[in-house]
Amino acid sequence: MCFNASLAKKAEILEKLFNAVIDIRELRNIYFKSAFTLPYWPVLKAEESRHFQFLQWGLIPYWEKNMEMAKKIRFKTFNARLETLNEKPSYRHPSDNKRCLIVVDGYFEWKEVNGKKYPYHLYMPNKQPFLLAGIWDRWVNKENNDIFETFSVVTTKAEGTAAEIHNTKKRMPFILDNENISMWMDKDKKFKDIKEKLVPAWRELQAHPVSRLLTSRTKETNVPEVQRRLGIPSLF
């Protein structure tokens, strides 16, 4: 699963790494954000891969009938399982026609030890930004013609460090390397044509335990302290 992520990098770093322009007026340091707050996040669409756009986390399918139903479904679509991506009604259309890249510099998961759960921050070496497979959709509220562009993070079976941390459900976001990025963003290929060729890039993932500040309901959680290494021995 992937319900919590981070992205605390300057615009020029993202633009240089991914050869895409980002609007600095919309970019904010994200040390920790939960999908349940429906945050806007920088995303690269397959058809517009040279310009980051800010879409809202929690996919609303284009066919949803009204705002009441849209509000309900988006809390169930933060993640989309790769294994059934072209089978689920909410994801079938975007899996072929609206694939995207979601940029992060880390994400958060919980490791269960002796019945207790401990939060961890997972990231690449030097906390270099990396890309997750995503799907997006555009929904129009017919009551007022408001347009919502939203996304879901594609997940897969956890491997390596990710499996050590998320040791109950053993899921992880689908991390893309350069070869997979090309396949994922190829508008001429249907999902069924690339599904078996996609291999997540997980081998360089690193992790360390962090404090439970990220679960606080009274303190600000989008602060650098939320990523600070916590000394918890013997969890690996």
Structure description:
The structure is a single chain. With 236 residues, the protein is of the alpha+beta class. It has a single domain, classed as Alpha-Beta Complex (hypothetical protein yedk fold), CATH 3.90.1680.10. 17% of the residues lie in helices and 35% in strands. It has six helices and 13 strands. It has helices spanning 11-18, 67-73, 89-97, 160-165, 178-184, 191-194; strands at 4-7, 30-34, 40-45, 48-57, 79-81, 99-104, 106-113, 116-123, 130-141, 146-157, 171-173, 175-176, 206-209. The strands form two sheets. It has a five-stranded antiparallel sheet with strand order 2-1-7-8-13. A five-stranded mixed beta barrel has the order 3-4-10-9-6.
CATH class: Alpha Beta
Q: How are helices and strands ordered from N to C?
A: EHEEEHEHEEEEEHEEHHE
Spatial shape: globular
Our count of domains comes out at 1
Biggest sheet, strands in spatial order?
Answer: 2-1-7-8-13
Quaternary status of these chains?
single chain
In round numbers, the mean pLDDT is 94
